[in-house]
Design goal:
single chain; five-stranded mixed sheet; globular
Length: 159
């Protein structure tokens, strides 16, 4: 299995998204996974799911769980669309909640570690800012997969 196919499987990337490149930097201790939205598939409004004309794209980066002890980042040009009802909106990505710089799985892990008191000297420290961010997403109903508020995948993800 090649690196792009491997990360497609690991991250659960499905159409209309595809892994276009995987960069491994041993000196930086990072894996960067580049993901792209298929230009042949009309993107949908993240609020109502209506297929809409494209507006532009914005570069985004998300922190994912480590891969073989290497910091893993997902990088994508995320389309924005012009919805007749909601105006210009960013398309939902299936691996992260709206407005987050972390994947849903990363946020879920942070919440589990925080609940177990990992930041109280019994393991690696979790920054208070990161913990607050993840708790905010959980409290606002945007809990990630496996988070305390949801043991099921979010139903709105992947639209």
């Amino acid at each position: 299995m090649r690196d792009k196919e491997l990360y497609k499987q690991i991250l659960g990337i499905q159409t209309p998204w595809t892994v276009t490149e995987v960069e491994v930097s041993m000196t930086a201790g990072e894996v960067t996974v580049h993901v792209k939205h298929d230009s042949g598939v009309r993107p949908t409004c993240s609020h109502c799911g209506t297929p809409c004309p494209g507006y532009d794209q914005r570069a985004r980066t998300w922190r994912h769980l480590d891969t073989c002890q290497l910091k893993t980042l997902i990088v994508a040009e995320v389309p924005r669309v012009t919805c007749p009802t909601h105006g210009v909106v960013t398309v939902t990505v299936p691996w992260a909640e709206s407005g987050s710089g972390f994947t849903a799985l990363y946020e879920a892990l942070v919440l589990v570690l925080a609940q177990r008191g990992v930041d109280s000297g019994r393991g690696p420290a979790i920054s208070l800012k990161l913990e607050r961010h993840c708790r905010h997403h959980a409290a606002s109903g945007q809990a990630g997969v496996g988070s305390p508020r949801s043991n099921e995948p979010n139903t709105h993800r992947g639209r």
